[in-house]
Design goal:
Oligomer: heterodimer
CATH architecture of chain B: 3-Layer(aba) Sandwich
Helix content of chain B: 25-40%
CATH class of chain B: Alpha Beta
Order of helices and strands of chain A: HHEEHEEHEHEHEEEEEHEEHEHHHHH
Number of domains of chain A: 2
Helix content of chain A: 55-70%
Number of strands of chain A: 14
Order of helices and strands of chain B: HEEEHEEHEHHHEHEHEEH
Number of helices of chain A: 13
Strand content of chain B: 25-35%
Largest sheet of chain A: 6 strands, mixed, barrel
Strand order of the largest sheet of chain A: 3-4-11-6-8-7
Shape of chain B: globular
Strand order of the largest sheet of chain B: 6-7-8-3-9-10
Shape of chain A: elongated
Largest interface: A-B, 23 and 31 residues
Distance between the termini of chain B: 26 Å
Radius of gyration of chain B: 18 Å
CATH topology of chain B: Rossmann fold
């Protein structure tokens, strides 16, 4: 028997019962679609996290006062804050880094008739490079503005959109807290990151924030960027030993500051999303298995229903393997068809979700290949038993079957 | 032993044996529920014979036919088909024997539903591995031979009983087998149609010299044959020309 004829017979059998064939493949379609969508979405989430971390600044270290165990947010312990001198010391003592002190606060900002509470960061010009957040237009702080703590500010795009109402921001004066502040530059758009609008921000010279807004002479955090990839670990160790000296920590006592590497955060988040991807993929794989059982079910029904047909075929000279192949090819064709439709739906679904959630759209040929291979394999595995049952029928019994 | 002496006499005038059965038993169940469907049957059929197998229902005529057609295997005894001992063959070898040397016609036509007449006739050729163009040609020819050249694309639902049986005959003959086995070929047909089908079989036999083995319970149909085997209770009780067997 020619292979093409076997395929022809199977396609005819599938086409003869379109609704049933569709329902049979539905299990595989859903299974493959969910596996493909879940794994792709997982990869997309991982990519999204990586991109967000990169947008914060690569090779970035956060140096914060307090105890590391408290986590990065809301650390207001009795630990002493840093001073500008600490940032300068780090910058002087450690090679191959950029250092930006940051004094974060928030203040009521008034622009024209509009007012809103906006996060304010007092910093230096190193901030742009360290945090990978550059000027769109305008200028950076001048040396005398930094040293004198002049009331100048660089604003984010959200402020322009929501508060300026179409006026030209450069050169205008806005109210930050109780200070009138001249706008000298506008930050490039960064979008949302970890649920925060990074474009709703105002940068001012660190001394301006200290004197005019906070009234203290310390800085909340120090941002450090390693200029060479892969040196963050070394830089971190150097900063830690330097700060221990400067803060005269007794030996064996817990540090009253901590250094956090964005790489660590990225890795932690990545491993979380990877675990989730595997978990979701595994759940989806179960549905693929259920789909396979569905195929086996229908093939068994089909064999019983077509017992007489099988009898006729055997009587006119079909060998057991002809019948076996016919039914096996039929189930493989069904599962392959389901696999292809599932791939299309899975990728389509991934695209839709990533588009709605503004995530990067990732298509992995490897994932698609695995999904497809599994669907074919399921056709073979779950199709074999019914096909064997058909092939082993006794011709006389099969012919007499009503 | 009677058989052998009679076949010994015929040997000079007749062709070689196509079928030889020796002490064939077919037994279902065991102990008190034992049923002997065939109870020691021996017979010889020669090439070119048109043999009708008769008997009341339950006489074993259908069982005999199934064993003759290699669709079933005997419980014991020897069955030689064209010089091959069928008892020693496995499923697939039996399938090959059916494919290459036998054509089947059934009472209930047994065409594949929802498949055209042409598709049905092509089926045995598909299993032989004949290429599509050649297959098509042979199937068309076979259908033309039974007078259905106009109806090749009709499915069995669109054909009358007589036409369906003609398709079945075309399917049985498309591989040009030396033996045609017909199990009550007119059982589902009215007398007019039955007569036509029988004339068809007779003319096929005249044209091709094919051996025909036919099961029937109707004496009028059996009269088309030139030899009748009459079964009762699993035994072959009469064997001879129609005039001798049917009073």
């Amino acid at each position: 028997m020619r292979a093409l004829d076997t395929l022809g017979m199977s396609v005819q059998a599938i086409a003869r019962n379109k609704l049933r064939s569709f329902l049979t493949t539905l299990g595989i379609i859903i299974g493959v679609a969910s596996v493909v969508a879940m794994v792709h979405l997982g990869q997309s989430a991982t990519r999204s996290v990586t991109e967000q971390i990169a947008s914060i600044g690569s090779n970035l270290l956060f140096v914060m006062p307090g105890s590391a165990q408290r986590g990065p947010g809301g650390v207001r312990t009795s630990a002493e804050n840093f001073e500008l001198a600490d940032a300068e010391a780090i910058s002087n003592e450690v090679d191959g880094i950029l250092v930006a002190p940051a004094l974060n606060t928030s203040a009521t900002v008034v622009i024209g008739n509009v007012n809103d509470t906006v996060p304010i960061t007092g910093t230096t010009n190193e901030y742009f490079a360290v945090r990978n957040h550059h000027l769109d237009y305008g200028r950076v702080f001048e040396a005398n503005e930094l040293s004198s703590g002049a009331a100048v500010c660089i604003i984010g795009k959200t402020l322009i959109e929501e508060m300026y109402l179409g006026q030209e921001p450069l050169g205008s004066t806005i109210r930050v807290g109780r200070t009138a502040c001249r706008v000298i530059g506008v930050l490039e758009e960064k979008g949302e990151s970890m649920g925060q609008d990074r474009d709703k921000a105002i940068l001012m010279p660190v001394k301006a924030v200290q004197r005019r807004l906070v009234g203290e002479l310390d800085v909340g955090a120090i941002y450090v960027s390693a200029l060479v990839d892969g040196t963050t670990g070394m830089v971190q160790a150097q900063i830690e030993s330097l700060l221990r000296q400067r803060r005269s920590a007794s030996i064996g006592a817990a540090d009253d500051f901590y250094v956090r590497d964005t790489q660590d955060i990225a890795q932690a988040l990545e491993s979380t999303t990877n675990t989730l991807t595997v978990l979701l993929g595994a759940i989806a794989a179960v549905s693929l298995l259920v789909g396979g059982i569905g195929i086996m079910n229908i093939m068994l029904v089909s064999v019983t229903e077509r017992t007489r047909e099988i009898g006729i075929r055997l009587a006119i000279g079909a060998q057991a393997r002809d019948v076996l192949t016919q039914f096996l090819v039929e189930s493989i064709a069904l599962s392959t068809l389901g696999g292809i439709i599932g791939l299309v739906l899975g990728v389509g679904g991934t695209w839709l979700v990533t588009w709605r959630l503004d995530m990067p759209f990732v298509v992995s040929p490897a994932v698609m290949a695995v999904g497809f291979t599994f669907s074919v394999a399921i056709g073979v595995i779950f199709g074999y038993f019914p096909a064997r049952k058909a092939a082993m029928l006794n011709p006389i019994d099969a012919l007499r079957h009503e | 032993m009677n058989d052998q002496s009679s076949s010994g006499l015929l040997e000079t005038t007749q062709a070689p044996a196509v079928v030889e059965m020796r002490d064939i038993y077919k037994i279902y169940g065991s102990g008190t529920t034992e049923v002997r469907a065939l109870d020691g049957v021996s017979l010889t059929i020669r090439a070119g014979e048109f043999v009708a197998i008769m008997g009341p229902s339950g006489s074993g005529k259908s069982t005999c036919m199934n064993i003759l057609g290699c669709l079933d295997v005997p419980s014991s005894g020897e069955y030689w088909f064209r010089g091959v001992e069928v008892g020693g063959l496995d499923r697939d070898e039996l399938a090959l024997l059916r494919r290459n040397f036998m054509g089947f016609v059934f009472q209930s036509f047994n065409l594949l539903p929802r498949v055209s007449a042409l598709g049905n006739v092509e089926l045995p050729l598909i299993y032989e591995g004949v290429r599509p163009t050649r297959r098509h040609q042979l199937a068309m020819q076979a259908l033309t031979n039974v007078g259905l050249a106009e109806r090749v694309h009709a499915t069995s639902a669109q054909l009358s009983g007589g036409q369906q049986q003609r398709v079945a005959i075309a399917r049985a003959l498309v591989t040009e087998p030396p033996v045609l086995l017909a199990d009550e070929p007119t059982g589902n047909l009215d007398t007019v149609m039955a007569g036509e089908i029988m004339k068809e079989l007779v003319s096929i036999r005249e044209q091709r010299g094919i051996t025909i083995l036919m099961v029937t319970h109707e004496p009028e149909i059996a009269r088309y044959a030139d030899r009748i085997l009459f079964f009762t209770d699993g035994k072959l009780v009469r064997d001879g020309a129609p005039a001798e067997v049917i009073p």
